[in-house]
Amino acid sequence: MFTGHRARKRTAYVLLVGAVTFALSTGGSAQAGYTRAAAKCGTVNLADNAWVGYEANLAVVAYVLKNNLGCKVVVKNISEEISWQGFQSGQVDAILENWGHEDLAKKYITTQKVAVDLGPTGNKGIIGWYVVPWMAKKYPDILNYKNLNKYASMFKNSESGSMGAFLDGDPSYVTNDEALIKNLKLNFKVIYTGSEAALITSFRAAEAQKKPMIGYFYEPQWFLAQVPLKHVTLPAYTPGCDADAKKVACDYPPYVLNKVARAKFMTSGSPAATVIKNFTWTNEDQNSVAKSLAVDKLSDDAAAKIWVTAHAAQVKAWIGK
Amino acid sequence: MSTTVLEKTPLKSEQSPKRKLSLTGRRSAFLSVFFLVFAIAFRGKATLPLDRSSLTGFQESLNSLSAWIDNNRDSNPFFTTFVNVVRNSIEWLVNFFQHGISQSGDSRIIPQIGWLGVVVIIGCVVYAISNFRMSLFAMSGFVVLGLLGFWQESMDTLVLTMAAVLLSLIIGIPLGVLAGLFPKFENFLTPALDFAQVMPTFVYLTPVTLFFLIGPASATIVTLIYAVPPALRITAVAIKEVPWSSVEAAVSMGSTRWQALRKVQLPQAKRTIVVGINQTIMAALSMVTIAALIDAPGLGQVVVRALESLDVGRSFQAGLGIVILAVVLDRSTTAAASKVDSGNIVNESRRSRKTILTVLGVIALLGILTSRIFSWAGAFPGSGLLGAKISTWVNNYVNWFQMHFVSITNDITNVVSYGLINPMQTLLTQSPWFITGLAFVGLSWIFGGKPLAAISTFCVLAIVGTGLWSDTMVTLASTLVAAIITVALGILVGTWIGRNKKADRWIRPILDAGQVLPAFVYLVPFLGLFGATRFTAIMAAVVYAAPASIKLMADGIRGVPATIIEAATAAGSSPWQMIIKVQIPSARRALALATNQGIIYVLAMIVVGGLVGAGGLGYLVVAGFSQENLKGKGLAAGLAIVLLGIMLDRITQAIAHKSSKGLSSAAH
Amino acid sequence: MSAPEPMISVRHLWKVFGSNPEKIIGSADAGLSRTELRAKTGNTIAVRDVSFDVAPGEVFVVMGLSGSGKSTLVRCMTRLIEPTHGELELEGEDILKADDKRLRELRRTRFSMVFQHFGLLPHREVIDNIAYSLEINGVGKEARHARANEVIDLVGLQGYAHAYPEQLSGGMQQRVGLARALAVDPQVLFLDEPFSALDPLIRRDMQAEVIRLHHELGKTMVFITHDLAEAVKLGDRIAIMRDGAVVQIGTPEQLVAEPADDYVANFVRDFPKSHVLTLRWIARPLADGEDLSGPVLLPTLSVRDAARQVLEAGTVARIMDGDKLLGVVGAQDILSVIAGASN
């Protein structure tokens, strides 16, 4: 189509159309918008990690930044790993919920000094072993790890061979389950389902079909509002008992979920930095917003608005007024 | 009885093919027996297991490599100049398109060209490259995208796809031409292309963002890596297919090689090159959801986010949008290919073509202007009610289905897992690595001689070198089961639709959907039905791979020469006898090709399988993507997948080649 | 030449391709030319009201140019293509009414077909190709291989039983096709231009084969060709087709001596009459000055074969059918035929 004399005329026409289009599209852009506040706040780059709890944090913080401070909020949907990497490249200003990740903290906070720990979000993460509710009701003693071997054969499935199946989820959540099973001498095998979706679906199906299931889970999580999984007690956590990953024989420590931000962003004087630094709330807060998002299927802004309107004073405190 | 001198005397120097085939058959049988005996005799020894969280020395070194890249990213001149230049140019290109049709510019709420303008432009462009019916089809497809409530996201996806495709063609076609002309160059490129197509994207997602930062550049590059190989390879084939006699004729009339290229080879290769463009677009679209993991905007984002809350309906809604985009682009480019083929120049006069293009240009301009002036023509009206309805309906249907069929599906899972997957996996993981390795090398030697045996030896040793032999065997077991199911489907369904035109018409769109619908969309329903198991991973792989197998087999069945069918009918064959004794054996080459392609497609789903319980290498790649200290292991897993893929691909290709040896005279 | 009951009986056979085939038959449109009919109704008449009988043991040749409908006709006769209208009987059995099962049975046991492009199964050895019909009829391996070997000997393929089709030349492949057709010992053999795809020399050899097989086995054959020389060589009777209709049926001599119309006359014009015409046709009454002292020649002798004797005799030859004198033939008569004078 683009060779030959006739075709050259064709090409000319196409180019003409393209040029006119281009001219039209770059002409006449009127300025409008938040000139006043924009100069004060500017652009804020927030990471968005792929679990609903994080979404809840993000929804509320972004809402406040946009509506109360007039910031331009840019959200980046990326994994935790890449979020931390963004501190180094300057593309991410803040992570609004961080679960541990000591290795990343060491790399970016301690060694490279491009990030700072902004302290707790107020949410406490409880990682642990959970069983489906119907089992807890029928066999109350299953909630203590010492009795698990008694029921191990019930948990057998097509993936676990002759042992009971213990399900793990998203690999970005560091787990000690293999070591725990070995060291507590339990007759189970860890099945790596590979994603949170797989884990949640499995729990949900197990409860619905009254099938046995035990696996790794955590609070706060919106799913627990739908299916209230029951926590299994392991030997209590004591500081240092998980120092050697291979010898762990105790429960998970409670996670103090924290916020991490880009060092240069925090010193930039942006009012957004203050809000993010001051942002705290409780597990219940997060669960309620998470439910609006996941179960009621509201948009981020709609869900955030409900909560922000109900907690105006708290929001004011974040802004620092 | 005259066997005159003019007749061939068979059985001269070359052995009868049957003897050869039964030789390979006998050798393969012997090899299998050898393997089984030794595998079982020495089971449990030298199986090279590796703890989930442990790393071998090699994997540790990969960790250090990525750390080094991390640290030197800002200082090393290579990174700062070359990488930045590339990144900036790609970003400029993508932003240009984006401001045009999708994202809000800095200050306008609607993009420069509103939805009406885009639809009209699409209509004009598609009309210019094919025909009116196709342009109507394309325009309605785009309107449906808006009705689903995803106009903005669809445009984002379109922009990224187009940018990636454009760049892929700019890189791929010239290189493809060179590869077509110079076989040595092609041989040089082939390993790199194999790598690019088989290496799971997950593996290089993080490194790419490291270099090219989060943004359109990374998303485009990630898509590029996957989309360039088809453009390149198909262009090379196109050039090679041009009969040498045409070139000879041109050269004998005094053309230079360059003139011959421009005036003879390229025009004749045009149709196949357009097919290559079609395949490039399809490859680019298949990257949409993965690119969303590094913040690429568009429909992929919607899918990934919907999955967080397990909202199957919404993810299906977005997946449907991707399918519509794919179908529109696919059919348009295919129609363009046949138009090129049929010599449009003959039918249209110079003048009428010029007029048509001018008129189209004016219409397009009008569309653009209208969309800028009127707000109803700018941002897509309505709130996507159609989309919401579809979403709810899908969710309800999935729940209903799950409630009623879950016991059956669970039984199927168990039967296949205990009966097929477990034995295969036990056999492979429990035999000593060198026994299994020898089996591979032996198989390669039987079907491909020494060169293939050498490649397989290298691959086997390299896999052992990655430290992931045991996990590779786990993955191989699932891959083989998926391949078996895929090929079985290929034969059954392919034969059926190959013989039955009506069936072909309504099955084909289902096959297309299976190839294009993002796996993430049907993963959650599968999880509900089959649990987080290897079987689910296998099912997901089958959904993706079976369509290709089926299409190839159907094509093979249809390609059986009519004379043979006639002769067999005249001899009194019943339909069943026709299928078993005539059609399937005659389509042996297609069957081998269907197996080869089936395995390749299954391999492409290994990582997705890791997200739903497949374990093995797929899980390791995902884990490496998410955990800092497992990065090296994830990279090693990616390498193992590539090595496994290359080995399986070459072996099945060799089997395909061998089986077609007896069929070169298809009695014409 | 009429047997008590014909082996094959074709009556008013029609084949019309298109959307409303049945309607065309008997309507006024049937009289239109092919292009006109296609333009008007979108249908094409491939076989037009064809009727003929084939006697047992006869080699019946259907001849015509491309597009004459001969290939369609032979396929209608085995129902590879379903006729639109007409009657078709094999030894008195109505073939058109046979259900699928009976049809398959007929195909497996009563008649066979040899194709222009051989139609061999490329993935099977020669012996398994030949045994195919027996195999699908449920004959055991030993039995069918034994029979196949018999036929291999018959057609001259000794030593090639375990070769593959792609290793054989065209002529050999067609022998396999022939063998396959003969393996079931059919009553009728249909041959659709079996030698058109072969080189001329091979073609000659294969024609000789067919003649020999016919002498040895006496099978009824329906032979399709576009080559007049082949038709004359092989055929007991020839049917000439044009535009789907049969123009003339007759022995070779009848066609050459008494062409039914200009088309046939044109067809046979270039064919050396002397090879076909027998003395019966040119025998004439005794003329003045001739006596009956010359040699006696059979009326079935062809002019060419008789030429030498008549020319050397010096006088007219007597053509005798038993005791009856049919006429005389002189050198002048011979030469005028050989020189190809027009009638």
Can you walk me through this structure?
The complex is a heterotrimer of chains A (321), B (668) and C (343). Chain A is α/β, with parallel strands linked by helices and 321 residues long. Chain A folds into 2 domains: 43-124 and 257-319, Periplasmic binding protein-like II (D-Maltodextrin-Binding Protein, domain 2), CATH 3.40.190.10; 125-247, 3-Layer(aba) Sandwich (D-Maltodextrin-Binding Protein, domain 2), CATH 3.40.190. In chain A, 45% of the residues lie in helices and 19% in strands. Chain A has 15 helices and 9 strands. In chain A, strands 3, 4, 5, 6, 7, 8 and 9 form a 7-stranded mixed sheet that branches. In chain A, strands 1-2 form a two-stranded parallel sheet. Chain A is globular. The model of chain A is unreliable at 21-39 (pLDDT under 50). Chain B has 4 domains: 53-101 and 153-329, MetI-like fold, CATH 1.10.3720; 108-147 and 344-382, no CATH class; 387-419; 467-668, MetI-like fold. Chain B contains 28 helices and no strands. Chain B has helices spanning 17-41, 57-72, 77-101, 115-129, 132-147, 151-181, 183-198, 201-212, 216-241, 244-252, 257-285, 288-292, 299-308, 312-341, 344-347, 350-373, 385-430, 433-466, 469-499, 501-516, 519-530, 534-558, 562-570, 575-586, 588-604, 606-610, 616-626, 631-659. Chain B is globular and about 80 Å long. Chain B starts with 16 loop residues before the first helix and ends in a 9-residue tail after the last helix. Residues 1-18 and 663-668 of chain B have low confidence and may be disordered. Chain C is an alpha/beta fold and 343 residues long. In chain C, 40% of the residues lie in helices and 22% in strands. Chain C has 16 helices and 13 strands. In chain C, the strands form 3 sheets. A 6-stranded mixed sheet of chain C has the order 6-7-8-3-9-10, with helices on both faces.
